[in-house]
GST C-terminal domain-containing protein (Alectoria fallacina), 329 residues
Amino acid sequence: MAGNLEAESKDPRQVVFNAADKDGHYRRKASQFRNVVSADPEAEFPAEKGRYVLYLNLGCPWAHRANLVHKLKGLQDVIQVVVMGYVRTPEGWVYDGSEGSVPCDPLYGFTKHSQLYHKADPNYQGRYTVPALWDRKRETIVNNESSEIIRMFYTAFDAFVDPSLRETYKPLLPSDKLKDIEAMNEWVYDTINNGVYKCGFASSQESYNTNVHALFASLDRLESHLAANQTPYLFGDHITEADIRLYPTMARFDAAYFTLFKCNLKMIRHDYPKLHQWLRKLYWDSSEETNGGVFGSTTHFVPIKEGYTYTLKQTVVPAGPVDAILPLG
Ligand SMILES: N[C@@H](CCC(=O)N[C@@H](CS)C(=O)NCC(=O)O)C(=O)O
């Protein structure tokens, strides 16, 4: 039987987050809008400047990866970004003007993210998730699956970006590393990106136990991978998709998942020197490699810590760890 989110109270900080299935395991549902923006002008959704809008919030790690690639590729003048609030309410994400967000949807004046989904499809029945890529022309959601949105951003809009940021010059998915990156994506998604949620949303001891050990086994595996390769990034001397997909989870790990999702067998800062170095290098970098520092500039610890706290129906935000991210040693 499918799990569901239950709203018990109208107070946004009192939402009961009941996401696990009856057996105590959390199972993420598949995204429903799966169209593709393409560089081909004849495509159903052709890349055009000013046509598409990326909806996100600053707490969500899946939205974070889309925001990262948007800024890494220098798409600020090509694709508008709309940031909504990071506190989940009984009605899903809303516009509340909280840190870094806008007071209402600038396109339609919507106050709730669900309204955008119903504008796209009045019969929509799924979750109202971020990120979502909106098409102003056809007035619909093109895609609400972050792993697909980021791949569109690698290439589809390259005609509109500086040549030095194009995939041909600076590949985020180099063809000679594609197989290795995809192999890593698979286990990193299952046991780390989604793995932290399987721990945090588990409603049985058995489910939590299984997933927390799988999570730390995979962090150990990443640590060994970095130690063996001796490269600054997961696949060499340049940032690739593998780094982009791992970063939002690692940036949230000590600050939120360790405490709030009970992912507390080890900490990145104390127990994983290579991963910790990798994380801090990305966060603090302001060179061309990160297009001037997009990892640091898109990481917002207040939305992250408060967002997870209230989602879990807790009212007190943990003070630590201090600092949320440590300086580069
Ligand atoms: N598979 C989706 C997952 C997106 C997702 O679950 N986003 C969460 C925020 S972290 C969300 O919007 N949840 C709202 C809800 O489930 O009601 C993706 O990667 O884009």
User: Anything to note?
Assistant: The chain has a mean pLDDT of 94. The two ends are 48 Å apart (CA to CA).
